[in-house]
């Protein structure tokens, strides 16, 4: 029985080590909307900010104003491109070629 107890402690020791060694900083200490980055050991701003009445442009890393408030009535598998505000042909399928 004693060997079983020693084996259980030896098996659990690697799991307890990070808990005992790492600092007690949690995501609860970040401001609302921020997230905890364990690699940098600090709070980070949101990955995608809330763009009020607009959209996030990941290439420019900025918020853009809305192009159009209502999509066009695209038919036959075409899709609405909100950036150019036009209907585009299907990307796949027999109609694409």
UniProtKB/TrEMBL annotation:
Residues 1-28 form the signal peptide. Keywords: Signal. This is Chitin-binding type-2 domain-containing protein. It comes from the Bacteria.
